[in-house]
Design goal:
alpha+beta; 9-stranded mixed sheet; 4-stranded antiparallel sheet; 6 helices; 29% strand
């Protein structure tokens, strides 16, 4: 790392080259690493093969295959994620990904804002605005996320209170903002569960600790933003007023 790449006190300046290509909307960090390793990326006219090189997006000229990379327009999408797709760009197991839902759309590279596991459905945001994504995912934002969850039993009020009390799983405390019974029929019921943080498989692990099977899990809202009537597998751009709601 040279002197231009360090701040006073030795802290890094700028971002790594692979992250820079992602922030500019060209590709994912993993894809950027491949381009860099193949010698297809130049910084200031010189070929760079080090993905960790720090670059300044305001000062450094970055080119791929001889073409300068410039920041893409900011894109904010809502996707109704179908069950069975993973929330990633490149899957080593060759499973279907949410990017299949974006095929044929004229878009720059966008990344998911958070994740929904393979078996989960519903509202997923995607964007190339990393500041927007980081703000929504920051636990300090306490952005509530609302889920409708079908379970393989009909809980009574005592069991609902047990769910609400939270549980410790492998030393990690799992709680919810609220858990309410929406409806029941036969041997199943639908719960509405609101979280203000999203740990890995949070709801599934919380309910599994009570031996409750999750049959379906659908995210229907992020903060005030509702999934609404968006068709399964469809995506649309967020309206300006929806971005304002999320920024509050």
């Amino acid at each position: 790392m040279n002197a231009r790449q360090t701040k006073q006190g030795g802290k890094p300046l700028g971002v790594s080259l692979n992250r820079a290509l992602s922030k500019l909307g060209l590709c994912s960090r993993t894809q950027a690493e491949v381009l860099i390793a193949e010698g297809r990326v130049r910084v200031g006219g010189k070929v760079v093969r080090d993905a960790t090189l720090r670059v300044d997006l305001d000062r450094d000229r970055i080119a791929v295959d001889g073409a300068q990379v410039v920041a893409e327009r900011k894109v904010y999408l809502m996707l109704n994620k179908p069950r069975g797709l993973v929330t990633t760009r490149d899957d080593p197991q060759q499973r279907g990904t949410v990017y299949a839902c974006l095929e044929g759309l004229d878009l720059p590279f966008v990344s998911p804002v958070g994740r929904l596991d393979k078996a989960s459905e519903g509202l997923l945001l995607m964007t190339n605005d990393t500041q927007f994504a980081n703000r929504l995912m920051d636990p300090a934002s306490h952005m509530p996320k609302t889920y409708h969850v079908q379970v393989g039993m009909v809980p009574d009020e005592t069991m609902l209170e047990a769910f609400r009390a939270g549980v410790s799983v492998n030393g990690e405390v799992l709680t919810a903002n609220s858990i309410a019974l929406l409806r029941s029929g036969g041997r199943t019921a639908w719960l509405e569960i609101v979280l203000d943080e999203g740990r890995n498989r949070h709801i599934r692990r919380l309910l599994a600790a009570h031996d409750v099977e999750v049959l379906r899990l659908v995210r229907i809202a992020i903060g005030p933003l509702l999934l609404g009537e968006l068709a399964k597998g469809a995506a649309r751009h967020l309206a300006p007023e929806e971005l304002v709601l999320l920024a509050r």
